[in-house]
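Table S5 (text form). Sequence records supplied for joint modeling of the two-component complex.
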Amino acid sequence: MTDHKSKPGSLLIRGGYLIDPAAKINAPMDVLLRDGRVAEIALRNKIRGSSDEKFDARGLIVAPGFIDLHVHLREPGQDYKETIATGTAAAAAGGFTSVCTMPNTAPVVDTDEWVAWLKLPERGAVVNVFPIAAATVGSRGAALTDFAALQRAGAVAVTDDGKPILDNEIMRAALRLGAELNLAVVQHAEDTRLTENASMNEGPTSFRLGLRGMSAAAEADVVDRDVTLAQQIRESRLHVAHLSTSDALKAVRRGKRAKARVTCEVTPHHFTLLDQDVGEYDTNFKMNPPLRSAADRAAILVALADGTVDAIATDHAPHATHEKEVEFERAAFGITGLETALALAITKLHRENKIPLTRIVELFTAGPARVFDLRGRGSLARGSYADVTIFDPKKRWTFEAAKSRSLSHNTPFDGWQFAGKVVATIVGGKIVYRGD
Amino acid sequence: MNQPARGSLLGIEHLEDKEILSLLKLARRMNPLKARPLLRNKCIALLFYEASTRTRSSFEIAAKSLGAITTLVQSSGSSIEKGESLIDTGYTLRAVGADAIVIRHPAAGAPHLMAKHLDIPVINAGDGMHEHPSQALLDAFTILKHKKSLKGLQVAIIGDIYHSRVTRSNCHLLTRFGAKITLCGPPEFVPDVAATLAPGLRVTRRIEDALRGADVIMLLRLQKERLAGQKISLQDYIARYQMTAARVKLAKRDAIVMHPGPIIRGLELTAEVADGPQSKIIDEVHNGVPTRMAILARALGKAK
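The corresponding structure-token record, covering 740 residues in total, follows.
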């Protein structure tokens, strides 16, 4: 899957333009990687030490390795949809050097053994895998898992993604235990009592198509409650997954103003598409949370620009063809997203909405690293891990789903023309992806 | 994945005006008692995933009056029970020789999915809460037997609009030709968003408001089970929205009363209204046959 694999040792990235928001660098700089770490950064041609290998980054942006807080790699148990090997290959092609995996697999990742299993070399990951473990046993919403053991095994957060924690007492207990361990609780905010049998956003389009709709309130009410709990519980950390509505943003802003440790992520599809784009029941436009109204998307664009949103996360959710080529209401929720995230951010956020590249890089690097407290990631400051993403913000290209590295091809962006392409992805000092 | 085959009828929304007019014109010339073997040697598959009396029997009679043979496949007693997918069921019917498929399905968009994968015409006989285009065509056919034109016609549609595929199709068709429609019922059944479906629609909660000046009164079946968990009770609904002889009088003197059926006497309407002189409910059923003959003839390119 990897196009080029260089030997461990040292790699000098020369002639590029470095954007490292965490280190407040925005200048032409060279970067020397050695033994898996950033050895030196300096103005062009000022690095003296020798290197085994050189990478010519002239005309390209050099950034800290991108971090995706929300991916479904489907192992264990659903390797017909995706494997850690294929999913991380897709991540590398999308410029991601680290991915945080969701625990809603078969079985659910709710023990330290399963967390450790995800990190074994036999899984064949080509980028860093940071498991997010289940918050409750079997994600059944009843008994909390052993957060401390999960954390020791390598879990970076806990969540019952896809099965929101609705019970106030369980959510309170999860935030309390998370606070003791400095572990974020990630919530897929959806009041499932209000969304039974619903398959898209509630609005004129769902009414016209005769589909049951998910209201914005079904998301916002849960975020509102969670933010209130996070304010009440000292040191607790709440992370709102794939936020999609204007009202949920209001709740997040309220929490941030009150200095609660509340963070949120937004997906590329939610800042790009609208509910009406579902057309005549195209199941590649079906995901949860659903595509929303124009007003919601506008609010999200503002929040991406003004700093309310902490990270862009893909919610990469691969599904087999037979799970998508069925009646819309029966089709699986979710789309793939690892290989199109940067291109959508540059095309939609930077070019169309004039959000600066530095902010976009922050949303892929420093922002997500802070959310789960991933030390040594999200920056290229000296001593950091040698994870680097190199991209050409001007390169035009067309995405072809059939050529995706993911095992599944359920994307609404097949055939889309983009500006902005990953040129190289470097993990621990090794080039794991090289584009054209 | 392809465009639907020529002759498919998936919904009214994307059907061109001239196609609607030519179908209505063709329906007027169809007579099940004077058989015209336009579809001799053709095979029409009737694929029903949901219960149906009117739609199924009238499609079958329409096909047979045109000389076609039919095969009926229902979800129970077929491979659908064994888990065969919709697309595979379509391929199977195509392989046994179906020249067109008439499909009724509880999921919105099911006919569209089938049409994307098949090269034979697919006719939507009702998909979930989405559309029921043949019903809208036969309703227009029925209205035009009693009214000169759809233009400027005042239509009141009363009842469970939210769950009604008939209403969605009727709203698209009637407003396209200049009718003004008032949707009436409690918010649970008539959400405000319903007014966005087509231009010339409005929503009211008051039945008197809907009926004043109406040329056509369309009623919808109320499913008791759908009242479960709703704020409105059966008695409330009957008190506020049941069509009674006294309420019919609020409309124009020559107003007609319609209902796609099945009707529940004593619930959305009284027996007096159902059997009254202004009721065209049985006419609608009757008109279903020539309308569906026209739809099938068009589907197989025999619209002469």
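Note: The interface with chain A takes residues 13, 85-87, 105, 107-110, 112-113, 117, 127-131, 162, 165, 168, 191, 193-194, 196-197 of chain B (CB under 8 Å).
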